[in-house]
Design goal:
Blueprint: H1 2-13, H2 28-36, H3 56-67, E1 75-77, E2 80-92, E3 96-102, H4 108-122, E4 135-144
Antiparallel strand pairs: 1-2, 2-3, 2-4
Length: 146
């Protein structure tokens, strides 16, 4: 057992890799969208009882991701940089949110942040739904800063 470890250490010291580098995986969000069969154009808006309240800290977090060059601001809202993320939300009539899948905007950290916010915003804040079946909805989160 010590021999393979010694080989790995020797190769590392010589500047060689013991194993070939794995290929970079494709982004997961578009595959998740396809797997779930999400048709964004037909999704109704998530039926919030009270509209979600965005805080300055939420906007600042996304601004920090842009400043760190992890993401790129996508649009302007009232002349200010902004990012808008659509999130598909699967809602069960009794259990609430079962899944939230962000639409890919090329910035995974902000996509996942938006999906988490939507799940939090929806907790105990959805209107009663008439059907007894699960249903997909769409929520949009817009982050804006100076």
């Amino acid at each position: 057992m010590a021999e393979p470890l010694a080989l790995v250490l020797a190769l590392a010291a010589a500047g060689q890799q013991a194993l070939p580098a794995a290929p970079t995986p494709a982004p997961a969000a578009p595959a998740a969208e396809k797997a779930a069969g999400i048709d964004w154009a037909t999704l109704p808006d998530l039926p919030y009882r009270q509209p979600p309240q965005m805080t300055a800290a939420m906007h600042s977090y996304v601004q920090g991701q842009v400043r760190a060059r992890k993401c790129r601001a996508r649009r302007l809202v009232d002349g200010r940089p902004a990012m808008r993320v659509e999130v598909a939300v699967l809602v069960h009539p009794e259990d609430g949110v079962r899944a939230s899948i962000p639409r890919s905007i090329g910035c995974g950290v902000v996509e996942q942040y938006a999906a988490g916010l939507v799940s939090s915003f929806a907790r105990n804040n959805l209107t009663a739904r008439g059907s007894g079946a699960e249903q997909w909805y769409r929520a949009t989160v817009t982050f804006v800063w100076k």
